[in-house]
Amino acid sequence: MQQKRWRWLTALALALGVLALGACGDEDESSSGGDTATTEPAKSFAAGSTMKALQDKGEITIGVKFDAPPFGRKDPQSGDVEGFDIDLAKAIADELGATPKYIEALSDNRIAFLKDGTADLILSTMTINAERDEEIDFSEPYFIAKGRILVKKDDTSINGVKDLAGKKVCTALGSTYEETLKKQAPKAKRTLVDSYSECLELIQNGGVDAVSTDDVILTGMIIQDDTLKLVGEDLTTEPYGVGIKQGDTAFKEFVDGVVAAYKQDGSWATSYQKWVGQYTGEKQDPPTMTLQEAIDLTK
Amino acid sequence: MSSFVDLLIDNAGELGRGLWVTLRLVGASLAIALIVGTLVAALRISSKPWLRRLGGIYVEAFRNVPLLVLLAMSYAGLRRAGVPIDVWTAGIASLGLYTAAYVAEVLRSGVFAVSAGQMQAALSLGFDERSALRQIVLPQAFRTVIAPLGSITIAMIKNSAIVGASIVALNDILKQARIINSETLETDEAFFWAAVGYLLLTVTATIAFRLLERRFAIRR
Question: HSE-up of B199 (CA within 13 Å, CB side)?
Fold first, then answer.
């Protein structure tokens, strides 16, 4: 009897697995009609180019963050993916006349995704640096994140990195801020945890006095909890770029073109105000830093 | 091989501080575990049913909640409830009270290992219940629990690593090794020395309990 039940359970599990696989497979095939020429008044691209291939396919796979509001977030209820990175991803897909398909790209696997073709582009709060530039190509910088300090609104004792001496500061173990804090605030007591959600918990419950990381992530915390605020000068500069497969020069030029137009025609400012500005009250212009300058920063 | 030695020389201060944090954490937690564990064991063998029930609830509660959850509850939970508990108190209390449940069970089984005839003989010789327990039963029970208490202590030393990895985030020896790893990317070397640190503590505990066992052994 016992054995029989197990057999049933195994069969059920297998059946579910097959169904799930089937569902995944279908999704890819159904949208690959060659209808772009008739419905889209899209640009024409040179034969053999990545743009032409994507346009013909009608779909572009873009690796984004699902857990980093306000840049990339998947709504757990609706399943919609949204954020500052997503707005730019949409603009690039529109220019191609292709439907964007979002997949989750973690800091760990995003470069591999580009290399093995899992993703056509990466827009996941990725800082441009010399080390990564060896592996992939970057677009011109589309956003400049800054290393900042987050404290409670009613805390008047911390107004900059100098005030962190003797204070407890949270950041993620293994992040660049471990080193940044050591250099810029050597007397701060670092509390190093595995994820930024733990830092948020700690500053909310008073376990630490401050959190330090990219202002983008800190802004995400402020959106969740408006009793927090950013203080002080920038600690570091983190220029974000769109990740492109190494050596695809024509595709890089195309993406650069979209990014430049996006900055100029006001789309950038609208998106910034929607995802960042309205929460921080801080104004920012589209970045003018060049890719070379961004790479040189880290050399 | 020399890279292991180099890493130790370069980071001896950090690793030493981490070992000291782990040692203090383990020492204080062990004291709490033994004291609370003895009290709970006393409840568990009490003649009053409601006291036995109370001891049972303690053991089940602290033995059935994962240490990581206990740490989150005692630190994040209490702080949110307005109790300004600090990391040391939360870490020591969680590890100590968690381990106390195991200590209580070992002590209880130790008392039950002494045959009931011993108690009856003592009572018939004119001992009252309390002094029979203290002079006849407990000394015999103590002998049988030394070895399992040693195992619990060793398990607790290793469990202490969870305190540093949790939201309590004490800078214990494992945390120091992880920091060194992220700074130097010399993973094997960093974790090797953390393992050596734990080994120092566990071997010391093993030797201490072996000596205790020998001291209280029945001469046969």
Answer: 6
Residues in B closer than 8 angstroms to A201, CB to CB, are 76, 167
What confidence tier does A24 reach under pLDDT thresholds 50, 70, 90? very low
Length of chain B: 220
B175-214 pLDDT, tens digit each: 999 988 877 778 889 999 999 999 999 999 999 999 999 9
Q: State the pLDDT at residue A4.
A: 57
* Cβ burial, residue B64 (10 Å; 0-12/13-18/19+): exposed
pLDDT per residue as tens digits for the range A68-125: 788 988 888 999 999 999 999 999 999 999 999 999 987 667 888 998 999 999 998 8
Min Cα–Cα distance to chain B from A280, Å: 26
Rounded Cα gap, residues B72 and B69, in angstroms:
5
Q: Which of A174, A198, A205 sits opposite B182 (nearest CB)?
A: A174
Q: CB pairs under 8 A, 24+ apart, for B214-219?
A: B216/B142, B216/B143, B216/B146, B217/B143, B218/B143
Q: Of chain A residues 228-267, which have a CB less than 8 A from chain B?
A: none
Q: Residue A149: helix, strand or coil by DSSP? A: strand
**Contact list, B79 vs chain A (CB under 8 Å):** 205-207
Is A198 an interface residue toward B (CB < 8 Å)? yes
> A143 burial class (0-12, 13-18, 19+ CB within 10 angstroms)?
buried
pLDDT digits (tens, 9 = 90+) for B89-98: 999 999 999 9
Rounded to whole angstroms, the Cα distance separating B96 from B104 reads 12
pLDDT digits (tens, 9 = 90+) for A252-276: 999 999 999 999 999 999 999 999 8
The whole-angstrom separation of Cα A277 and Cα B122 is 81
Written as six digits, the tokens of A229 are 């605020």
Q: Which of A174, A179, A193 sits opposite B167 (nearest CB)?
A: A193
The 8 Å CB, 24+ separation contacts for B42-45 are: B44/B104, B44/B108, B45/B108, B45/B111, B45/B112
Rounded alpha-carbon distances, angstroms, from residue A225 to A77, A165, A168, B135, B165: 20, 25, 20, 61, 25
Closest CA of chain A from B158, distance in Å: 19
Residue from A50, A255, A247, A235 nearest A133 by CA: A247
Q: Fill in the DSSP letter of residue A175.
A: S
Q: Which of A192-196, B33-37, B134-138, B205-209 has the lowest mean pLDDT?
A: A192-196
Report the C-alpha gap between A164 and A149 in whole angstroms: 9
Asked if the Cβ–Cβ distance from A201 to B179 is below 8 Å, we say no
- Taking chain B, what is the end-to-end CA distance rounded to the nearest angstrom? 49
pLDDT at A8: 61
With bands split at pLDDT 50, 70 and 90, how would you rate the model's confidence at A132? confident
Which of B163, B182, B185 should be substituted to probe chain A, the one whose Cβ sees the most A Cβ atoms within 10 Å? B182
